[in-house]
Design goal:
By secondary structure, this protein is mainly alpha-helical. The chain has four helices and no strands.
Length: 95
Amino acid sequence: MIPAAICAVVYVVAMATVLQLSLRTYVPGSLNPGDLTLANFIALLKPLYARVFLNTVWICFLTAFGTLIDSLASIFPSRQAFALPVSPLRLKSCH
């Protein structure tokens, strides 16, 4: 339980740092971030970024759907094979 909590804290701190940096202005040639701003997120509303985001969501949907179909196709035939009763005569003929 403790290692999982440590991993969760490290993950949350890293994500908070990235979010904090994304809310700062970029100052060219400086290692220090600028003031807080929402301009970085407003720039994401441009049509190019919206199209890229929608393409990404579409590819994620197709991947999830394909994985679901593939897993269903591989699960059900094996379940059916395990569910078939085996008669003692079939077992004797195998030896």
